[in-house]
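Everyone, carefully examine this protein record:
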Amino acid sequence: MTVDSSAVVEPTAVVPEAITDTITVTRFLTTMSRKYYGDHRFWVYIYEENAPKLRHPDKIRPGTVVVIPPAEKYGIDVNDPESVKKASSKIGEIYSRFDK
């Protein structure tokens, strides 16, 4: 299922099934995360879901199609401070892979 990037989704919406979206020059993992999960920090789970085809999270080419996983797959809950904290911690883990 492909999603129209101009569609508006409530920030607390739960993604019920995996869908796809496309990276553009103005659309990044963080903007997708804010749209689908309600917080930019949950981008780490979109990255993890697509890691086999992605390299550095800041260097994803426009036109790259990514899978947006269902929120429950990773325990994403914008209203749970622990869920947000876990995502923030994972950000550090991901970037540390590239600091070597």
